[in-house]
Amino acid sequence: MKTRPPTTTSSIAMSSKLLTATAVLLIPALALAGEMKAPEKIYRSLDVRAVAGQEKALIKLEKRTAAYWRVTFDNPPFNIFGPETIPQMEKVVSQIEKDPDLRVIVFDSAVPGFFLTHYNFTPPLAESTGLPSGPTGLHPLPDMLVRISKAPVVSIALIRGRATGVGSELALASDMRFASRQKAILSQWEVGAGLVPGGGPMARLPRLMGRGRALEVLLGSDDINGDLAEEYGYVNRSFDDDKLDPFVDGLATRISGFDRQAIADTKRLVDFASLPSDPEIAAGWDAFITSIQRPVAQKNIGRLIDMGLQKDPDVEARLGHYTQSLADK
Amino acid sequence: MKTRPPTTTSSIAMSSKLLTATAVLLIPALALAGEMKAPEKIYRSLDVRAVAGQEKALIKLEKRTAAYWRVTFDNPPFNIFGPETIPQMEKVVSQIEKDPDLRVIVFDSAVPGFFLTHYNFTPPLAESTGLPSGPTGLHPLPDMLVRISKAPVVSIALIRGRATGVGSELALASDMRFASRQKAILSQWEVGAGLVPGGGPMARLPRLMGRGRALEVLLGSDDINGDLAEEYGYVNRSFDDDKLDPFVDGLATRISGFDRQAIADTKRLVDFASLPSDPEIAAGWDAFITSIQRPVAQKNIGRLIDMGLQKDPDVEARLGHYTQSLADK
Amino acid sequence: MKTRPPTTTSSIAMSSKLLTATAVLLIPALALAGEMKAPEKIYRSLDVRAVAGQEKALIKLEKRTAAYWRVTFDNPPFNIFGPETIPQMEKVVSQIEKDPDLRVIVFDSAVPGFFLTHYNFTPPLAESTGLPSGPTGLHPLPDMLVRISKAPVVSIALIRGRATGVGSELALASDMRFASRQKAILSQWEVGAGLVPGGGPMARLPRLMGRGRALEVLLGSDDINGDLAEEYGYVNRSFDDDKLDPFVDGLATRISGFDRQAIADTKRLVDFASLPSDPEIAAGWDAFITSIQRPVAQKNIGRLIDMGLQKDPDVEARLGHYTQSLADK
After folding, report:
1. In terms of CB atoms within 10 Å, which end of chain B has fewer, N or C?
2. Over the stretch B65-110, which tens digit does the pLDDT of each residue have?
3. What ipTM was reported for this prediction?
4. Phi, psi of B34 (to 5 degrees)
């Protein structure tokens, strides 16, 4: 597992003392270059943020059998994903890649209402941009998503609650997705806030559901319920909420009994036919990093935080509604 | 805006005097090369054709806001699209490309029963082949379709009535398509008449709905209603007729409030993942132009015109039925 | 038509005398190289196998009209496809490619409960690997599938009963697929037995239904009914059983009246947009041949044969259930 570089760690410590209520995420160029030494970075402390980060287990790994693991996101109240989650996730992905007995992993959530949601906007951007690249050479977030897709084992996203931003992107990087018809919400909300999504949905959604529906998801930036997600192929299938867990567990159990080599060889050929290239994923990440530094995105995120983003359950639960209100002024 | 070359314009004047009832669209090689000087070209005058072409507004542009425009096809009674429509459409596309405030355009129709239908078969072919290439180097019809797909703004086709041939192709070149469940008919009817479709559906349909359903649409050449269009992903979604306009207007209004740069950057990456190349589109256009000169296509179009194509509302409304009757003898 | 090489034929005669109950398909390296001279190859005789192979018509060709043919699989009781079927199928494919009047072929079955099912596991592997390559340079099975996809005529699979393994792969190689809602079962069962599918589904399924659903079909390896096959786009559409034949016959009749050149030119451009390359198909075949020689696959197939594979209708009809029982021990 890669550890957070010391300069970044110390900048967190500094920045956490620099809470202000008025300036949010205004990141000077030096900070972006990872060379910031002085406390120019401004950071808003939120109840939901565990500054200690690496000490708290935000992701839990349960080995149901040697061949079948559960990876559970547990960062209440919203399952926000940020630079503090990345080292833990990297550890999980490395185990997934290396374990010789594993066949199938299921990603799920322990947080009611949220599968996994958007990126954490409260740490300074340099905490994200300053992280060392992963084995693919990509930033560690897209790096992990790419590695999950290419792993020689099967990954299944069990989606109950909101899968927005990183949550949607992790689901899309997984091999299969199953959703609760009543309780799942999927979305790529970023364009609604003036951002470009960073974790690959421009590459993955059109290959999954065709250009037209992908553009609706991305440029409409609205909440997609379980029925529509199934109709569009955003998920493999949606199930009535009480049927979802038995189905996914049954499928995972079934696959866990199959031959590891046959799984890996079959998946590798599907990968050839269906996965975007790493440079295409990198282009999406770069567009996200560029977009987040634009004044309009800074202003929109600031206004969303003022409305209650990362704090008010209603804002997190109805993100598609609140992004529209940005335009309504 | 590109103007129609003088030689072509004069050949229209000549050809319109040469109406015959028996020979239709028998185009000598010289005409195709754009060098025809004598009235060898044979042309059937139809009530529906506005020979004046450029003087009559066949397409209307309404700027609902600076960011949200409506482009309305208004060429009654059938919304046929031909060489006379091209310069007007080119003007609209150029505005779409250049306007700095635009975010979203909706294509719709003012003609009951027809969104936009097939290419106009009454002008001499040289009127089409003689048009100067567009900025992409393609013939102006595929040129405009390609430019709509790549424009930095969002295009939405609101389909009520028949979208056949060019109408289907414009819808497919648009970023999203929504249809009236009761009143939309989509089709690529060309193979049924011995033609190859020219506006890109061989490239776009398989990427949208998979090879099997695309081949059914193209080689079955039959009428597709709103329900099947939705099931196949020919459109994003179909709505009950009274729900279609509010939905599209709501989505367009929503997107019109988003940041122009975020829209453009996100769309550009979706384009990379989903758009066919220009040479692939050019190959389709060339196949269309080749096909229309074959005796079987000439005979079929002549017979369809005898049945009432471009004149009889029943032929235009039930084109899938009438193409089959060509084979039935 | 290519004939079976003599050395392979004689090894069949030898091996059929060597039936044992304990060792199945344990193929020494020499046998795989096609050089086996001694009776090391072990082979289990089954009631369902016509050793005479080429003398019995396993595939029937009916020319309903010059333009519309039916190709009917008739190898009761399960419509198993093996090296004995390949020369007959090659003869059919060659006719399809060469006939100047043909427009459309429909593949169907004369065997109740089975459209076409998995590869025949009872002949020695060398009977398959020893077959000369087809015109594409691929092994004759993937060669024929590739040629069907690229033929200048339309192919339609009418699926009633089980389409598993080769049956699913032939359906996927066809231009369109229509299924009985009540009586069709599609599956790629191979991974469930420790095999990699060999006839191209890793290349074709993701392009048809997207990566997520394709991986579910391939790695879940379970039976897919008519409803789910339609929802996933595994087939174009499913019909109530009594509506299937009239629909397919109507569509085939319709297309058979269209111009052959327009069909071919349109299909060729769809091919460009949607077909995998031959090397991608070859990689899948090679992965299958490699997988079948692994001890785990040999053991699984042996156990399935002990359970009743290729003999017991219940095993053939509920293959997804029996592969799971391999893991359950």
Report:
1. C
2. 999 999 999 999 999 999 999 999 999 999 999 999 999 999 999 9
3. 0.86
4. 75, 15
